[in-house]
């Protein structure tokens, strides 16, 4: 097992200390630790962090790793590499694969593959309904006895209220999290963009806010009346924020995530008709991004989740209406959250640790993630360089796919090092930003 001495690191962006990692845990933190004076520090690899920021490893509640079924666009291995490069030590991969993850042996296979590869803990999300068909509940009980702690039909909404009611009751009985992709499909049949002025001008079918908000409203009321724990995937509208604020004020057990792209981008991006900007829910308007930023700051929205959704160029470099929805997120999310909140002065690194690691770990009840940076704690950590500017190029990302909406964008913050149980899963080298990996 690796023994590492991180010199001159700033936990949460605060005062510089030395951190010793041994046997997968943080064994010592201090200002005096030196490789020459203490027996315990002998043989450690010394990494001079030069004031870089140390955070608990990031946890992503919402990714799509496409295995099984679309290994041409992402696999558990390439997705784990992308996650490690993004600073993540645990991710939850959605059930909308082929086959759908709706039985225990399929969920077990995802978990085992992630563990065998070893770059990131890959937790399988179980489907709520068999085959994501929205009709028959899947084996929620059996799957919850294995590695599944969250259930979602993500990609599709559980539209039928009676099916959702049963799911809420089951999830309560098994004490698992239900994550809803809130979209009333009856309102979005031909929708490819946010319903508003931009879509009208560009002649694109509109996806109205109410298609999301009506489901959020229904599901928080179900949770109020039938119990359990509800999570709202990719909250995207001002109205969803208002509903969440109300629900939380009532003490309803609901949590919510927002994606980096819904915090940063608006439907103005659609002017070029570039399919890379097609995503579900769609990019909305600036009043929504403002409301979502405020909601994340005040805790109404709990966490950032990337909704990392790899697609091949044959599905993205086509007419906007025919492009598959979804965009990459794992390798750019920390840079975006740093830009929107830290570089702008709206929040500090403690906030980033909270929304990208501590809260997701808490919601999913992960005992070994999102932990304090303290002696005796597991060494699931990310070293962040707030001053290492880099330019995004889809072809250079670790992900097997290239569908990033940030092609050519320069960000200031990058990941220098990621540690999973004390082992290095990603280490930045100068070539990371210059050499193509595919
Ligand atoms: C996701 C996908 O590609 O699987 N697409 C997307 O636009 N977000 C599904 C989803 O999260 O809804
Ligand atoms: Zn979704």
How does this structure look, described?
The protein is an alpha/beta fold and 438 residues long. It contains twelve helices and 20 strands. It has helices at 76-85, 104-117, 140-144, 161-174, 197-202, 209-226, 238-249, 260-264, 286-298, 313-316, 333-343, 349-363, and strands at residues 3-11, 17-22, 25-30, 45-48, 53-56, 58-63, 88-93, 121-124, 150-152, 177-180, 193-194, 206-207, 229-232, 254-258, 303-304, 381-385, 390-391, 410-411, 414-420, 423-427. The strands form five sheets. Strands 1, 2, 3, 4, 5, 16, 19 and 20 form an eight-stranded mixed beta sheet that branches. A five-stranded parallel beta sheet has the order 9-10-13-14-15. A three-stranded parallel beta sheet has the order 6-7-8. A hairpin with a 2-residue loop joins strand 19 (414-420) and strand 20 (423-427). Helix 6 packs parallel to helix 7 (238-249). The protein is globular, with a radius of gyration of 21 Å. It starts with a strand and ends in an 11-residue tail after the last strand. The structure holds N-carbamoyl-L-aspartate and zinc ion (ZN).
